[in-house]
């Protein structure tokens, strides 16, 4: 098992756990289970808001990790080399810089006319 596979496993596990905790926290806030869980004693009147925002934040973070797992697994499954990925990034940067140069040239020409 390579280092990439271990990293993917960790991201998947952390993402699923984060999603689960987020759903649990959001359900506590949404269905007003705060009194039953004893969170009123710990967080007072802010307990519902802390659970809601914390739960939604955890769900977003977990979904991002699971999405990263899915994308990287497909990338590694297709046996793309890292040089292909960096080459793609370099090509897009070159296109961006060429378009910026062309824009500047057009501005200079329009200012002189």
Topology, please?
Elements: H1 3-30, H2 34-37, H3 39-43, H4 47-77, H5 82-112
Helix pairs in contact: 1-4
Describe this structure in words.
With 113 residues, this protein is mainly α. It has two domains: 1-79; 81-113. 88% of the residues lie in helices and 0% in strands. The chain has helices at residues 3-30, 34-37, 39-43, 47-77, 82-112. The radius of gyration is 24 Å and the shape is flat. The model has no long low-confidence stretch (mean pLDDT 76).
Number of separate helices: 5
* N-to-C span: 64 Å
Question: Could you estimate the helical fraction of the residues in percent?
Answer: over 70%
Which class of secondary structure composition applies to the elements?
mainly alpha
Q: Can you give the mean pLDDT?
A: 76
How many independent structural domains? 2
Rg over alpha carbons: 24 Å
> Which outline best applies?
flat
Tally the beta strands. Answer: 0
What kind of sheet is the major sheet? none
Low-pLDDT windows of residues:
none
Percent in strands:
under 5%
Give the H and E element order: HHHHH
Describe the structure concisely.
The protein is mainly α and 113 residues long. Helices cover 88% and strands 0% of the residues.
Defining key terms:
mainly alpha, 113 residues, 2 domains, 88% helix, flat
